[in-house]
Amino acid sequence: MLAPARFISHLRAMRTIQLKDDVILSGIKPMAAVAIFRAGFVFWRYGFDFVITSGQDRPKGADLNKTLHDDGLAFDLRSKHVPRPNLPGLLSDLRHILGEDYDVVLENKGMENEHIHIEHDPK
Ligand SMILES: [Zn+2]
């Protein structure tokens, strides 16, 4: 596993993975980092931009309870640019490629802050 700073610079250098400027991924855990690459693969296959909008920083409007974002085990992806007819298939493919230890949730559907939340949360 790359040191966090190197991991982040690799992500930026790849260009295929875009990060919103204020995203914090410095304490991302390996199981979440793996999920970023797997999820990226799904987006690339569809030809959609892959944009991480939140890591350990708190998503806008998030409640004050501790979440797996704080632990480096969750991240959010932009979904507003995904054509609506493609959304169900994209979510299904993400769940399939990540497996049952990950939760994939479309949050705030249709709203300004809509995003796909992914967390590593083995049952
Ligand atoms: Zn989230």
Q: How is the secondary structure organized here?
A:
Blueprint: H1 4-14, E1 17-19, H2 30-46, E2 50-54, E3 74-78, H3 87-98, E4 102-107, E5 115-120
Helix pairs in contact: 2-3
The structure holds zinc ion (ZN).
- Count, helices: 3
Provide the residue-averaged pLDDT: 87
Largest sheet, described in full?
Answer: 5 strands, mixed
- Output the radius of gyration: 13 Å
Classify the helix fraction into a percent range.
25-40%
Read across the widest sheet, the strand sequence of neighbours is 1-2-3-5-4
CATH class: Alpha Beta
- Which CATH architecture is right? 2-Layer Sandwich
Ligands in the model, by name, code or SMILES, are: zinc ion
Our measurement of the CA-to-CA distance between the termini, rounded to an integer number of angstroms, reads 24 Å
Strand fraction equals: 15-25%
The general outline is: globular
Structure description:
The protein has 123 residues and is of the alpha+beta class. It has a single domain, classed as Muramoyl-pentapeptide Carboxypeptidase, domain 2 (2-Layer Sandwich). Helix content is 33%, strand content 20%. The protein contains three helices and five strands; from the N terminus they run αβαββαββ. The protein has helices at 4-14, 30-46, 87-98, and strands at residues 17-19, 50-54, 74-78, 102-107, 115-120. It has a five-stranded mixed beta sheet. β4 and β5 (115-120) form a beta hairpin. The chain is globular. The model has no long low-confidence stretch (mean pLDDT 87). Bound molecules: zinc ion. Zinc ion binds next to β3.
